[in-house]
Specification:
Bound molecules: pyridoxal-5'-phosphate
Mean pLDDT: 92
Radius of gyration: 26 Å
Strand order of the largest sheet: 1-9-8-7-6-2-3
Largest sheet: 7 strands, mixed
CATH superfamily of the largest domain: Type I PLP-dependent aspartate aminotransferase-like (Major domain)
Low-confidence stretches: 1-28
């Protein structure tokens, strides 16, 4: 796969608005469906002759006929999937500045670590003494993450950021319900800023908490409004810091005080830890409980909902409620370390995931932190922040940055928002600009969130200055194109395998099965 895959392709001559019928045919751009390549009798593998006696199928279990599967040779099969795979848009092939998602490069060494037979062959029910290396890794990871968080204990079990939110909210609930704990069962309200990621209110709803929105002022939490909303029914505030507008909220310790004085807790959505890891610790700025998105901050190729891991970190007063089992370390008679799974935690919320969580993802996270070390992690955060500020500064003459204003010392963290009002006033939409970026082999940034008509741009720390400069060049070129002829953008993307899709048609009349 070449990095300029999309640009190498000839202009698209297919119809710009496919009907549901031709939209179902990958064949419009030269990759026929596998069903269309079927040749009766062709096989991808030859099975050896039976070496056991043939048995009759039980009556009544036989289908009416063979399934309508495509019949192709092995080479056709391999080529088919290779062609399709080459159409994937990925971080490995292209720049992917998708704000909030942290689509960064994942070093190959982590894949090598995750593929080591000692790890891949271990069984989750193996005796502890036969899996000491695996347990040592998990134990070390949980202590490292606690250090990075500045909190007391980490549970590795949740398997996504959203899942971490869910587990942590359950822990908070268990704490307030416990007469020996928070002893305030009426605390069922969770506050969330209006810039919160959709998973925050969704997780609250899943846990039966009432969600109350906290308004923002200049992109940050409105402290006065927050004071007015906190009361003796408040369990916690879920805050993302730096937030989804790309701003680090410098009033975070005041926010923590407001919550704590009212007997409530401060929850940090740690999706944006790649801006502060190794620089500041959430525990130091007042956070009581948080989740990590290891696939964003550390490593693991992710997209389309997975895979990931969402470890949660808590202060010690919340430890009794964490999910079990927990990996623990003991010193044996000879003074060596022994690791084992610990299940006895009577107040635990129980399991939120089978076995140990997403082991392979946790291993990649361990490998990434081990390779970087404390200094490396700090470098990552500095670079992520520098890259975003660089792009914002280079683009803001053409793409307005409402929250970024270096003259007044308003900088961004690892991502920033642009609301390109002047360009949109010329008759193009945000989608037109996004589609034009695809022509240049660049994945469009996150759109229309957290504010309408915005791009949220996150370059990440892994892109070189040359790539950032090329992105600026493309964005400025698009601005020039809009100035010259806004209508021309309506035909974008011209170089992609398919042009504008009928998105409404795809939602209303989806074609979900092959009709030959
Ligand atoms: C990605 C993200 C989440 C959800 O995390 P998943 O790992 O995708 O479940 C939550 N909050 C913010 C701010 C995010 O960017």
């Amino acid at each position: 796969m070449t990095p300029t895959l999309l640009m190498d392709q000839p202009p698209n001559t297919a119809s710009a608005t496919p009907t549901p019928a031709n939209a179902s045919r990958a064949g419009a751009r030269g990759v026929p469906l596998i069903f269309e390549q079927s040749t009766p009798g062709a096989r991808a593998v030859d099975l050896p002759a039976l070496d056991v006696p043939e048995a009759a199928e039980p009556a009544g279990l036989l289908a009416d006929g063979p399934p309508a599967l495509p019949e192709v040779g092995q080479l056709e099969l391999v080529r088919h999937y290779t062609h399709i795979a080459a159409r994937n848009f990925s971080v490995d092939a292209n720049f992917y500045p998708l704000g909030s998602c942290t689509m960064k490069y994942n070093p190959r060494v982590n894949e090598t670590a995750a593929a080591m037979p000692g790890f891949t062959a271990v069984h989750p029910l193996q005796d502890d003494q036969d899996a000491q290396g695996t347990l040592a890794m998990l134990y070390q990871l949980r202590t490292w993450l606690a250090q990075i968080a500045g909190l007391d204990e980490v549970c590795l079990q949740p398997c996504a950021g959203a899942h971490g939110e869910y587990a942590a909210l359950k822990v908070i609930r268990a704490y307030f319900q416990d007469p020996q704990g928070g002893n305030a069962p009426q605390r069922r309200t969770v506050l969330a800023p209006d810039t919160a990621h959709g998973t925050n209110p969704a997780s609250c709803a899943m846990c039966g908490a009432n969600v109350v929105k906290v308004p923002s002022k200049d992109g940050l939490v409105d402290l006065e409004a927050l004071r007015g909303l906190v009361n003796d029914e408040t369990a916690a505030l879920m805050i993302t810091n730096p937030n989804t507008a790309g701003l680090f909220d410098g009033t975070i310790t005041q926010i923590a005080d407001i919550l704590h004085e009212a007997g409530a807790l401060l929850y940090l959505d740690g999706a944006n830890m790649n801006a502060i890891a190794g620089v500041s610790r959430p525990g130091d700025f007042g956070v009581d409980v948080m989740h990590f998105n290891t696939h964003k901050t550390f490593s693991t190729p992710h997209g389309c909902g997975g895979p990931g891991a969402g470890p949660i970190a808590v202060r010690s007063f919340l430890s009794p409620y964490l999910p079990v089992p927990q990996v623990v370390c003991e010193t044996d008679a000879a003074g060596g370390s022994r690791y084992r799974w610990e299940n006895s935690r009577p107040k635990s919320i129980g399991k939120v995931r089978g076995f140990t969580g997403q082991f392979g993802v946790l291993l990649r996270c361990w490998a990434y932190i081990a390779a970087c070390g404390p200094e490396g992690l700090r470098d990552i955060s500095h670079t992520a922040v520098l890259s975003a500020n660089y792009l914002a500064a280079k683009l803001r003459d053409q793409y307005e940055t409402p929250y970024f204003d270096p003259q007044n010392k308003r900088f961004c963290a690892h991502e920033f928002i642009t609301v390109p009002k002047r360009l949109l006033a010329k008759g193009v939409t945000l989608v037109d600009i996004a589609k034009r970026l695809i022509d240049h082999g660049i994945h469009p940034p996150t759109m229309h969130w957290p504010v309408h008509d915005c791009f949220m741009i996150e370059p990440t720390e892994t892109e070189s200055l040359a790539v950032l400069d090329r992105f600026v060049e493309v964005m400025l070129k698009i601005a020039d194109e809009i100035a010259a002829d806004p209508e021309a953008l309506k035909a974008a993307p011209r170089n992609a395998p398919v042009s504008r899709l009928d998105e409404v048609g795809a939602a209303r009349n989806p074609v979900l099965k092959y009709e030959g």
